[in-house]
């Protein structure tokens, strides 16, 4: 393992990429600590620590929202807009045409995603300024609020979101790993010490002592990590046979390969989107007080468990069929002279793919829901507020770490060095 880390810094190109990524992460954390002008950080931190949607957003912004910092919105507006664009591509023919155009089409979709991100960031900034400027909030977070001060904060947060998008693209182009994933990974890691401190200081155990609770929480966290790795790596391999083809004077040889269908194709996206839908009424309740009771009923109790689990399963199926369309895949196999042994090409192959997806996605989505509900379980047993450092956070941490490790592994093996996996 130590030899592998030494090899990483022996390769000049890989060393530059890693150092550049670390530099961007440093700038991101620096911007997350610089508050917007005219903000009472103590009152704001007290309001955010009450939990709910603000606690959720603060966790995924790396604690920047508690100071209304330059990067106080975090990366969530971009993730939300990317999910929305993925769904729109499936239902809008023009966007689907762009996707099929190749690199030029993907650039167009990326540009629309940027504009949508800025729109969502602007809306969220206005909502936060409105919430924090209310005079009935004890210790108003925005000191001596004026319209000019509100506009300055909104522009600061929106510009910070634009700069954060640029940081993510720089990491993707010149650094190592996916830029946006690295940034959200950094945000979560930055909040881990604070969340463990909360677990220690605010825990009122029903059974046992604090030490007992920490042992249980550690064991549960390690178990979730193992489950996430198993869920992320688990796949069903469908064998595919390519027939011999004659094209002009050339004959292509047939062969056997396989199509890997992951048990959890959608990753953490169903959890993020289901959380956004659950907390959306809470956000609206900041503007419409009459929705407060309805929003609270959705965010706790048996209704929360049922709706949250149902939406995770629904979005897991929905996104899986967006990523892997059985009919499109069947047509591609037929076009290139490939077939699944024992299954006729065309529609029968598409039906077979659909059956396989339905069978493997159901246990995968249920396991995903169980991991996502871990914070609520800890809340019940430990008697503390819901801890955001739960299933979704662990899934993101493990998933990003595995993906980044695979990229470093590929870079090392290209230069004939040993990687992490031997």
Question: Main attributes?
Answer:
two-stranded antiparallel sheet; 2 domains; three-stranded antiparallel β-sheet; Preprotein translocase SecY subunit; mainly alpha; 422 residues
Overview of this protein structure:
There is one protein chain. This protein has 17 helices and five strands. The mean pLDDT is 77. A three-stranded antiparallel sheet has the order 4-1-5, with helices on both faces. A two-stranded antiparallel ribbon has the order 2-3. The chain has helices at 2-10, 12-31, 41-48, 52-60, 76-91, 93-100, 103-132, 147-174, 179-201, 210-233, 269-285, 292-298, 301-323, 326-335, 347-372, 374-382, 391-414, and strands at residues 235-242, 245-247, 250-252, 255-262, 338-339. With 422 residues, it is mainly alpha-helical. Helix 8 packs across helix 9 (179-201).
